[in-house]
Amino acid sequence: MDFLRVKTLESILASAEKRPLKRQLNAFHLILLGIGAVIGTGIFVLTAVAANKAGPGMLLSFVIAGIVCMLTALIYAEIAAMVPVSGSAYTYSYAVLGEGVAWMVGWALILEYAIAAGAVAVGWSGYMNGILREAGLGLPLTLTAGPADTITLPDGSVASGGFNLLAFLVALFVTWLLVIGTSKSAKFTGVLVVIKIIALTAFIVLAMPAVEMGNFEPMLPNGWGTPLSGVGVLGAAASIFFAYVGFDAVSTAAEETENPQRNIPIGLIGSLFICTVFYLLVAYAAVGAAGAQPGGELSASREPLAFILRQLGYESIGNWVALAAVLALPSVILMMIYGQTRILFNMSRDGLIPARFSEVHPRFHTPHIVTMATGVAVAIFAAIFPVDVLADISNSGTLFAFLVVAIGVMVLRKSQPHHVRHFRTPFLWVLGPLAAAGCLLLFISLGSYTIKLFFAWAVLGLLVYFFYSRHHSLLGKQILGDINAN
Question: Does 18 map to a domain?
Answer without folding.
Answer: no
